[in-house]
Design a protein that fits this description.
Elements (H helix, E strand, L loop, with lengths): L2 H15 L2 E2 H8 L3 H13 L3 E4 L2 E4 L7 H6 L2 H13 L6 E4 L3 H8 L7 E5 L2 H7 L5 E5 L3 E3 L4 E3 L1 H8 L3 E6 L3 E3 L3 E4 L2 H12 L1 E8 L10 E4 L6 E4 L5 H9 L3 E4 L1
Parallel strand pairs: 4-5, 4-9, 5-6, 9-12, 12-14, 14-15
Antiparallel strand pairs: 1-3, 2-3, 7-8, 10-11, 11-13
Length: 251
Amino acid sequence: MLTSERKAYILKVLGRDGRVVAKAISRELDLSEDTIRRDLRELAGEGLLQRVHGGALPHSPAMGDLVQRREVSASGKVAIGRAAARLVSPGQVVMLDGGTTAVQLARHLAPGLKAMVVTHSPNVAVELAGHAGIEVELIGGRLFRHSMVAVGATAAEAIARIRADVYFMGVTGIHAEIGLTTGDSEEAAIKRALRRQAAETVVLASREKLGAASPFHVADAGEVDTMLVEADTPDQAVEPFRALGVTVIRA
């Protein structure tokens, strides 16, 4: 079998099953696991999948730049942002992540709401600038341009001094076994810092992130409290998270 044929088969299995197990593919094709692992490495290098222990998962389309991400699940992100905004109560201290869905959350906060929003996203802060009832605490640090958020030691130190009622987390990969992942190590560290400082964590889970994985681990799936998903998300996609004790809310 030619290399191109093997890779096409691997991608076909990935699309069909949502994962690839190297040992199973090697048996099906009567080839060595080393050959299949080499194919997986090359496919990962092309951005077509994310390697994990023993095989691979879909590469998250949420790994693109901000312009690209605005076009992915656009209507779903609006719905999730609107639903997330309804979870914010008057007087709360809310930690709000960066990303396109977080901007939608900020955009849909009730006009009369009085609360504090802590964010490391300049885009979110600008979105809230005209909201008279929201006090905005903007976390500074080194600007990570890919996601337009502050990262680094300065950001982490500022976050450690704040206690919040709820953290609305954005990630690029959400998988019941692999956990919550993102594409940059420093961004992952800031997300962990935000989660530690909040009494409750809500994950903003648009469709393209479910079942996908990115290189850097943020948290195990069972370590968050709630997931907000699009209304038409299949039950089989969310049942593994419910089994871990996560509350799943459809937007």
